[in-house]
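ok so I'm stuck.
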Amino acid sequence: MQLIKRSFILIALVLLAACSTEKEIVKIPDPEPVYVPEPLITLELAEPVQKKKRGPVGANIHFTNSSTGIYQYILFRTTAYDKDGNVVRARKSRDQSAYLRVAGPVHPGEYSKGHSWKNTWRSKANIDCIDIDHVEIVFSDGSVEVAQGDRLTKLTNGTCVR
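replied:
not stuck anymore, here's the structure
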């Protein structure tokens, strides 16, 4: 009887030891892909425009609606630079950025050109280039999104590189 008890305990210990030496392989799941939003707007051209030699400087912007929504309004935040790279303040607000608005509708894939603004910067500014770093878009359903960074594609050589 004593032998049976000891044998049973010995067998139980061997089985427990055998179970503990097995290594369980845990497969780590692949990371989920990172969502990269599509660009909202593609800038084709952004340049300063001076109609007369002594008159104020304006802006001319061409762009494409890169999204699937209809734009009701677009607000471009532009910064002008002189030849030395200094920021030129807006004429009316004296802010570092001038805000230029386009009224829509602008349909998906539509190329919009010839949007010009006058009297944006003062005449003595000697503006070399303008940069658009922020675009606020109001869709036809009333929702608002901001295009900057990856959501703003610039195809123009006239945009300042700072």
